[in-house]
Structures are given as C-alpha cells and as structure tokens.
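Batch job 17 of 40 flagged for manual review because the log was empty.
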Amino acid sequence: MKAARILLVVLGVLVIAFGAYVLVTSVSPKRIGGLATWLLGAVILHDAILSPFVVGAGLLLRRAGRTLRAWVLVVVQTAIVLASVLALVVLPEIAAKRHGQKNPTILPFDYGTRLLVVEGVLLLVVVTVLVVGVVRARRTALVKPTTIR
C-alpha cells in the first residue's frame, strides 16, 4: 500500500510539472493573470457554492434514506452532480457569448437556453424518481409481512 501511495504521489507531481511546462510554453505572460483569475473563480464557485449544496443535499437524502431505497438516492445524487458539473462547464460559454466574439461561428448556439432545458430534464428525472421511490416505500410499509409464531 505504501508503494502505491508513493507511486501515485510521484505520478501526481509529474502531471503537475507537465501542466506547468505546457502553461509556460503555450500561454503568453500577459494572459496568465486572466487564467489565474478564472481558475480562482472556479475554485471559489466549487468550494463555496457547489460543494456545500451537494453535501447538504446528500445529508438530506441520507436522512430520507431510512425509508427510500438506495437506487433512489443514487439517481438523485447523480443528477445533482451532473447538473453542477454541467453548469460549471457551460457558464463560461454563456459569459463568453455575452461578451461577444470576433468569430460568430465559435459559439453558435444559445447555451443559456440549452442549459436550462437540460437542467429542467434532470429536475424532472429527480422528481419522477422521488415520487416513484416514495410511493414504493409507502406500499412496502403498508404490506409488511408478519411473522407467525
């Protein structure tokens, strides 16, 4: 186990070193400030908004997990994570489109509307799964088998 940890640490350091090399050789120095700002914003968005939301939703689902089946919890948590990651990926495209671009073929779609549609579909899936899970849990609670002594 110790050897595997050492190998993973060394591999991680090599990947970071390669990323730093690519950054220095491919990004002009005047653009590194903008890149650092974007990366800092992504970390703040993830750590201050998305992670607490996902953890809070997970805690609420764990409480409900006493009555709901595991597959319901898995589907809901997966939908929350998918919605969060999708928002993180698409929000910069929406911002870039609003700032305007020199080439209109780079961002040709209405990403805001498409994000809302996909998030709405995920919400519909979550609501459907929760309704089915609650109905099944209630049916199971009503039809508990009794043991004969």
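Reviewer: the log was empty due to a logging misconfiguration, but the result itself is present. The chain is about 85% helix and 0% strand. Unflagging and moving on to job 18.
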